[in-house]
Amino acid sequence: MRRILALALTLAALAAAAPLHAQRAAQTPRRPALGAAADTNDARAYMQFAAQSFANRPAEAADAFYWAYQLDPSSADALYGRYAAFLVSNPRRLFNYWNGDRRTVRAPEVLAMDSLYFRALAMDPFLYRRHEITLFTTYLRQAVREATGGTASDAYIEREIDSFLVHSGPWLRAIEAYANGRFPQALTFYDQALSRARSKSLVRAERGRLFAHVGNHQSALEEFGHALTEMRREDERDLVFLYESKALIEHGIAMLHERAGNPDAAREAYGRALTEDLAFYPGHVRLGLMAMAAGDTASAVGEMDLASQAAGSDPYVLYLYGAMLAQLGRLDEAAPQLARASQVAPFYADPHFALGMVHDAQGNVDGARQAYRDFLARAARTHRRRAAAEQRMAALSAPADGQTAVAP
Fold first, then answer.
1. How far is CA 381 from CA 50, 352, 384, 397, in A?
2. Please, what sign has the CA dihedral across residues 15, 16, 17, 23?
3. Does residue 83 register a pLDDT over 50?
4. Mind giving me the DSSP string for 288-303?
5. Helix, strand counts (H, E) of the chain
6. Are 285 and 297 in contact (CB under 8 A)?
7. Domain boundaries, the chain
8. pTM of the predicted protein model
9. pLDDT tens, 297-340?
10. Burial 18-46 (b: 16+ CB within 10 A, else e)
11. Measured between alpha carbons, how far is 319 from 341 in angstroms, rounded to an integer?
């Protein structure tokens, strides 16, 4: 049984980002009821609720992560959290998913969750997957239930899990250490696991992410380089069962170069990521933002235009593009991007504020007033732009000489 569990866990850890699929669920999840003092416009309130609910009420946690993302589409943590809570909420589905059951892994709702995980990693290649240990222990409990025909007591299940964890190899011990924030120990265990791993690229990639977590960028770059070499070798040998995108690794390399202040190397790595996957729009986003920071506005707009086309309905990309156009004074082009972002993510406050500024600059008083009003209805109480929106609303509603004030 332990041999089967170890194999299944290894295959599970090999699971990586699938191509992006449609993100919208057929039904909108119920918005969880927060405490009376909670700010229902604040994504952090839903993230906190989700964290508190994750272990015992994972379905509610998944709903809370969904709403956190609706309020803040820049949150990779919300996307990853929803993916993880979705899996934990149905232990049998998780068991079948990690065992590679064809019907399970191809189910539309599972493909949609896989795409959330890919998208989260694309947004943040160094995302801390804090729920990983709960996923593994949930799988183990279900594995014991399956092996005993559902007759095992809770006490027996916990004894079996404890025994398995004590006698597990370095791979699982690395995952457990990582999930509990013991990064140096996890690095040691991953190093021990490297010689035994069939897919060395996965171990290299995990070590690279861990080095990035502890601030050792040079070692992270070296490990990512080794991961790419191993990926190409494994591709040639057809040894990889579940594929980790080279574009994601190149994206991580590029972000490390950015952090280290090496813009030329970063641009080259983003370019390689796009060569690996032409639809990998986060590469265009980063290239656009880098070009904007360097004062190359033509390249910035060109990259963001490509990103918005590839991203489709990603509200954060639409917002970034619209905000960039507004900053450059291209107001007539900015407005449609910001309006679309607000339509795709109707609870997302930031596009409304930016749209208010655009209408304000255009002299469209009614449009500006409505956009600021929409922003204030959606913005968290602590949002840094609330005061500015309130001031503009007051100014736009103040009567001119001989006129009557307009109600805000």
1. 20, 16, 9, 22
2. positive
3. yes
4. HHHHHHTT-HHHHHHH
5. 22, 0
6. no
7. 1-32+39-168, 349-408
8. 0.86
9. 999 999 999 999 999 889 999 999 999 999 999 999 999 999 99
10. bebeeeeeeeebeebebeeeebebbbebb
11. 6
